[in-house]
């Protein structure tokens, strides 16, 4: 009995360590997104290069967490909610790694934009949509930390606003390109950045849906927003 209790306690410690490391990875990814947008706004080469260089740290954490989850499955053979937790962690770290990739893409595009002739770079306001997506990421991580289904459902609802902002930016860029073909090159790069921001929102939404699955035991992906909110409320 004592051995069994000890094993159970060790298993809880393993799970808690994994959860903590996911949040650590989340914090690093949040920082990457924030710095990529700072680099885009300021054109500071050091900030941009730092984001590109730090991407390997995000990838390393994904690999470490993947291995930790594999070990827990092999050693502990978790069941029910514990197994759901491991599955959610594996999915969440994939989304976090992809958000890291989007931050790196933003940094690379920012570098190109600031190297281009400023006269042909369309002035597009992206701080607002970037703030929305970054806020979604922060709330998704918070929902995971607190296993808060209501907060998770709120993040899913916010994704529509990011999508609307992306479409508005795309319309603005098309207008710029039609009016002055010399802006085409920079416009395409800005479009890639806007798409990356929209993808960050998508990944944060995915992470929030996993939290609902973890707590409720029901997969709510590919379900309407209202149905997800109802599911969170029951």
From TrEMBL:
Keywords: Cytoplasm, Phosphate transport, Transport
Signal peptide range: none
Keyword Cytoplasm set for record: yes
GO biological process, one term: phosphate ion transport
Record localization: Cytoplasm
InterPro entries, per database record: PhoU, PhoU-like_sf, PhoU_dom
Sequence ranges assigned to domain PhoU in this UniProt record: 23-109, 127-211
Subunit structure: Homodimer.
Job description of the protein: Plays a role in the regulation of phosphate uptake.
Official protein name in the record: Phosphate-specific transport system accessory protein PhoU
Gene (name only): phoU
């Amino acid at each position: 009995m004592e051995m069994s209790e000890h094993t159970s306690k060790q298993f809880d410690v393993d799970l808690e360590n994994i959860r903590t490391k996911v949040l650590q990875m989340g914090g690093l990814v949040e920082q990457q997104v924030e710095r990529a947008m700072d680099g885009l706004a300021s054109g500071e080469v050091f900030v941009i290069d730092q984001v590109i260089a730090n991407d390997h740290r995000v990838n390393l954490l994904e690999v470490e967490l993947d291995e930790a989850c594999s070990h827990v499955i092999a050693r502990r053979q978790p069941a029910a909610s514990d197994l759901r937790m491991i599955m959610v962690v594996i999915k969440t770290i994939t989304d976090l790694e992809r958000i890291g990739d989007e931050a790196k893409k933003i940094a690379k595009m920012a570098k190109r934009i600031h190297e281009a002739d400023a006269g042909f770079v369309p002035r597009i306001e992206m701080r607002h949509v970037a703030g929305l997506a970054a806020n979604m990421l922060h709330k998704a991580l918070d929902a995971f930390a607190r296993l808060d289904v209501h907060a998770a459902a709120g993040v899913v609802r916010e994704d529509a606003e990011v999508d609307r902002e992306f479409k508005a930016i795309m319309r603005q860029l098309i207008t710029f390109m039609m009016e002055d073909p010399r802006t085409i090159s920079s416009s395409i790069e800005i479009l890639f950045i806007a798409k990356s921001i929209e993808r960050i929102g998508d990944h944060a939404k995915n992470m929030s849906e996993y939290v609902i699955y973890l707590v409720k035991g029901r997969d709510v992906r590919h379900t309407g927003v209202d149905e997800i909110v109802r599911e969170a409320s029951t």
